[in-house]
Specification:
Distance between the termini: 40 Å
Number of helices: 2
Order of helices and strands: HH
Helix content: over 70%
Number of strands: 0
Structural class: mainly alpha
């Protein structure tokens, strides 16, 4: 196998692992939001507060005081 093929295989393996990790992280945060929405023990205002708490935790963990969404 050539060095180029090995490099490509390595890059693809690393990219696949990174994508898998990103997907797991997104699933984790979204499951927290979904659980807040579906919590029948909370009022509507309680659900909103819980989601605000989740966002605050995300910002703290990621070190991002402000979230942005790139515009096409």
């Amino acid at each position: 196998m050539s060095a180029t093929a090995i490099d490509r295989d390595f890059i693809e393996a690393v990219a696949s692992e990174m994508a898998s990790g990103i997907q797991a992280a997104v699933d984790c945060w979204m499951s927290k939001v979904e659980a807040a929405f579906n919590n029948q023990h909370l009022t509507t205002l309680g659900r909103v507060q819980k989601i605000q708490d989740i966002l605050a935790e995300y910002r703290r963990v990621c070190g991002k005081p402000e979230l942005t969404c790139p515009r096409p």
